[in-house]
Amino acid sequence: MNLEESKQKFIDIWGALGSEWGINKSVAQVQALLLVSTEPVSTDDIMESLTISRGNANMSLRQLLDYGIIYKRVIAGDRKEYFVAEKDIWKWAVKIAMMRKQKEIEPVMNVLNELKNEVKKDKTADGKEFFKTVDDLYSFTDQLSTLADKIFSSNRGELLLKLLKIVI
Amino acid sequence: MNLEESKQKFIDIWGALGSEWGINKSVAQVQALLLVSTEPVSTDDIMESLTISRGNANMSLRQLLDYGIIYKRVIAGDRKEYFVAEKDIWKWAVKIAMMRKQKEIEPVMNVLNELKNEVKKDKTADGKEFFKTVDDLYSFTDQLSTLADKIFSSNRGELLLKLLKIVI
DNA sequence: TTATACTTTCAATAAATATTGAAAGTTCAG
DNA sequence: CTGAACTTTCAATATTTATTGAAAGTATAA
């Protein structure tokens, strides 16, 4: 297996992983392509390498730019836009995790909190039991969320290693 | 808003969250229904409450049983099967997280590892750079994975609180 | 053993999601 | 200005994923 084949394999597995994670396959593949490219890459390069349409390439790039995990790069005397990947894994992993937390955790916390306040008044046995279910869930999610925030705001990847030693 | 409406709201938001998390909406709703039910629930109850088909109810139950986050419950003198939810959040959250880790992380680790070994031989500048990308990613994922294992195997929820204090 | 009460399967169908590509929009050099 | 080079949008289409429901399977009481 030569280098190009290996890179292709990387792009494929990254796309498949993205799907599992609820990240669009094309989006994940574009990031993978930028990660393995030594040179800045244009929209046309992406269309050709991944055999996807211009619209898809454009939307995938936009999303990655929004996430802040790839960057635009201008090349003097060329009107095309080029793109490069953020290579520091910690940086982009944190950005993706934050984005997912915001999308997946926070709306639920809000509803759980609302529910808690509504159900609190109900003094039937059934009501109390439901309150406990919701309250437990809220507390648990809140703890997870707080932990995530702490980790995201700590600015070094070594934190992970520190955590590991502590948890042993 | 009465108790039934609150419970319905809980079921709805849980289903929506499930979708975001790549867990089938019906599966998440069935778990939510069992969580808020004071009595064991039959397949027919589920079909009626969630207005889903028998096939869907059966498949959702099977999946939740496989995950180990709900249990069968026999009721004397009744041939129907009834189901109850695991109420300890820590227990089922860990089970879901383990299942997702296994599905999402481990296959990638394997491919990244393979890739590392293949690319290691390539001594071109390009090859070395790609090796670093893959190796960094592998190390990062491996650390996350190890951390997850430690957390999953620690048997008490208070660990989370301990972690919180440390990370501050 | 047979009828009945229940569970499971799975091909057909519906719903949700991703992708295409042509057309409209933008920017800029001449 | 104008036209060329590029980017963005979005309705149509394709693909993937979830759901249905009828038929097949299984277990039990009589």
How would you describe what is shown here?
2 copies of one chain form a homodimer. In chain A, a hairpin with a 6-residue loop joins strand 2 (70-74) and strand 3 (81-85). Helices cover 73% and strands 7% of the residues of chain A. The model of chain A has no long low-confidence stretch (mean pLDDT 90). Chain A has helices spanning 3-20, 25-36, 43-50, 54-67, 89-104, 106-120, 125-153, 158-167; strands spanning 41-42, 70-74, 81-85. Chain A is elongated, with a radius of gyration of 22 Å. In chain A, 22% of the residues are buried. Chain A contains 8 helices and 3 strands, in the order ααβααββαααα. Chains A and B meet through helix 1, helix 5, helix 6, helix 7 and helix 8 of A and helix 1, helix 5, helix 6, helix 7 and helix 8 of B. Chain A binds a DNA duplex (30 and 30 nucleotides) through helix 4.
Helix/strand/pairing category of chain A: mainly alpha
Strand order of the largest sheet of chain A: 1-3-2
**How would you describe the oligomerization state of the chains in this entry?**
homodimer
Which pair of chains has the greatest number of interface residues, and how are they split between the two chains? Answer: A-B, 54 and 55 residues
Average pLDDT figure of chain A: 90
Total DSSP E strands of chain A: 3
Q: Total number of helical segments of chain A?
A: 8
Main sheet attributes: strand count, strand direction, barrel closure of chain A: 3 strands, antiparallel
Rg of Cα set of chain A = 22 Å
Cα distance spanning the termini of chain A: 39 Å
Globally, the shape of chain A reads elongated
Q: Helicity level of chain A, as a percent range?
A: over 70%
- Bin the strand percentage of chain A: 5-15%
Order of helices and strands of chain A: HHEHHEEHHHH
